Amino acid sequence: MKNPSKLLEKKYLVPFVLITSLFALWGFANDITNPMVAAFKTVMELTHTKATLIQFAFYGGYATMAIPAALFAQKYSYKKGILLGLGLYATGALLFYPAAQFQMFSFFVGSLYILTFGLAFLETTANPFILSLGTQETSTRRLNLAQSFNPMGSFLGMIVAAKVVLANLDADKHFDELGNKIDFSSLDEMTKATDRLHDLAIIRDPYVALGLVVLVMLVVIAVVKMPDTAHQTHIHPLQSMKRLLKNKVYRSGVIAQIAYVAAQIMCWTFIIQYAENLGLTKEAGQYHNMVAMGLFIVSRLASTIILKYVNASRLLMWFALGGIVTTTGAILIVGLPGLYCLVATSVFMSLMFPTIYGIALGNVGQDTTMGSAGLVMAIVGGAIMPMLQAMIIDFETVGWLPAVNASFILPMLCFVVIAIYGHYSYKKLAVNNI
């Protein structure tokens, strides 16, 4: 007799491993891109607000393509959706080569937009596919396990960003006789043109290499047989959407996911600016980001184990309360302790994305594919909120606080939303045994 609480059956092992590897691939893209906001701001002489067009394009691509990806997967298969996603991913990454040649910020933004079309296909198909590889009882734990490989890819992306990109930008290597850093915008035009040519090539190369890796994964997945465990062609998309809109736990879950993605991207993108405001370099700021990611990975693995014994909604609420405490510290404490509070926030963010995902999709039945699209569209939070935070940072000071400190009120409010969802979903589902 099959044990219903088994996390993963042997017959699904190879598909699980291959699809889980994709979580690392899009994690790498996410976290090599976050530091590019600071890099492009310097090299292309942009305001904080304009530089966040990088994030707007990156996460806006999810919102644009999530529903088309769900419709495609529903009509054809999860495997074909994944293959198309990998193709778009590779295309966007390889377009960084001509973007660097033309030295056009808009070209880079467009390339990232196409790249995230691919990521939207991958996330819309891979997340529900992992949920379907076994019983519903273990689905949230299974997704947490698969999502544990996402921050590993993210950590590698951070290392590449710090050691390959930020550490080698010539625009940040100009100093006067006293050792004080010279602002790039004050240099003569010939020096700036030379630095820009060099630095854009430095930014370009990791993306081109990534595009080639993605093409290899496309070939591997194309030749491996995948089980079609959950995709259904007979469900009408409009009927599915209507049912989902009536589902309060799902609907609230989309809002919570918007809040989570916004909080994550704000905390990880602007940790460099927070560190720079304390007199640290971009590279040093990125090292703090890497520590945050290390804590995130450990906490994600630990929370996957804890979820075996603690209700997912209650654990989500507790972690959100922890995030409120640490972001409040990042706002009110001016100095290195405030930076450490910001780093510690990653401990509490660790379980949020897959747990919200699992809770929201836990009782949608046959509407999983379209439900997944709505949760992937929620990633648009990463496009809008960082731009609002950048607008705050551009003020330089807010009252008695440095503007970069005050800007973290936005992720703090996001954690409030997530804590409310954790409490609500626990009362709605666990108490009622749904």
UniProtKB/TrEMBL annotation:
Keyword Transmembrane: yes
UniProt keyword Cell membrane, yes or no: yes
Record-level GO cellular component terms: plasma membrane
Stretches that traverse the bilayer: 12-29, 53-74, 81-99, 143-166, 207-228, 249-271, 291-310, 315-336, 342-361, 373-393, 399-421
Pfam families referenced in this protein's UniProt entry, alphabetically: MFS_1 (PF07690)
Location of this chain's protein in the cell: Cell inner membrane
Taxonomic superkingdom: Bacteria
Name of this protein: L-fucose:H+ symporter permease
Species this chain originates from: Carboxylicivirga sediminis
Lineage: Bacteria, Pseudomonadati, Bacteroidota, Bacteroidia, Marinilabiliales
